[in-house]
Amino acid sequence: MSGLEIRELEAFLVLADELHFGRAGERLYVSQSRVSQLLRSLEGRIGAPLVERTSRRARLTPFGEEFLAELRPAYGALRAAVDRARTAARGSGGVLRIGFQGVIDDSLATAIAGFEQRCPDHAVELTEIPLADPFGPLRRREVDAAVVLLPVEEPDLVLGATFSHQPQVLAVSPRHPFADKDSVTAEELAEHPLIGIRGAAPAYWRRAQAPDTTPDGHHIRRGSTASTLQEGMGLAAAGRGGMLVCRSTARHQGTRNSVVFVPVTGLPESALGVIWHAEHGTPQARAFAEQLA
Questions:
Q1: In CATH, which superfamily holds the domain spanning 93-160+272-292?
Q2: Domain 6-87 belongs to what topology?
Q3: How many Å apart are CA 18 and CA 11, to the nearest integer?
Q4: Beta-bridge mates of residue 123
Q5: What is the pTM of this model?
Q6: Chain-centre distance of CA 286, in angstroms?
Q7: What is the arithmetic mean of pLDDT over 168-197?
Q8: What's the whole-number average pLDDT of the chain?
Q9: CATH of span 168-268
Q10: What is the Cβ-side half-sphere exposure of residue 259, based on CA atoms within 13 angstroms?
Q11: Can you state the percent helix, strand and coil of the chain, rounding each to 5?
């Protein structure tokens, strides 16, 4: 155990989930080569190979399968012990850590106030979640619940209340050809580049926020990519493409003179949902979801 690094164990656990070095690196916010380095170090400490590497994928060796079966519950117990110690250090009360994407609209603000009245011994801490990684903060236990843009199709996450169903609008530069229009159709999106989302977000989620085809199947060109809302607004202002956002975000950003918001017809409404992790969700996270519902 001398010198054993928790990061090596985390790299192995994530790789065992993904069976792909690139995706494991995205979830850990490190390069693919760093994942390989951490795995080699762990294998060196143990003295046996844990993963068989191929040109495109990875798979666990029989020894790796046995090690995973013992490590996963032990690692979960370790994280649970840290969480219990953190709660005990805060006294009889606690903190509900809520991550959110976009802006805090009236419905979310009302739910937060209602939760604090319902659970007066718990304070709420708010953390903005980047567009690039909607689910990572929950999996890393940086937050207890998260308010994210839909859809959510992750098997390890629980989707509670959904809310804030709103029309989508297109953020563009005042110099953009759409800037003077009262509205545009979803089919017209094929005429100009659309700003995409980069990072660890699943492909289905990225396509929902920045579709690559119109409803009739016409290709939408990809412009620059952003990892945060503010980065996307900056790219739109610089003329790198249009960015789809919900109406609440447009209202919140409406004071910017560098961006124009144009309603889009023919697209599904944007919506938010509150989620928590299936294995380590807290009663407070569920109470907050009930408050939103």
A1: Periplasmic binding protein-like II (3.40.190.10)
A2: Arc Repressor Mutant, subunit A (1.10.10)
A3: 10
A4: 95
A5: 0.67
A6: 19
A7: 95
A8: 86
A9: 3.40.190.10
A10: 29
A11: 40, 25, 35
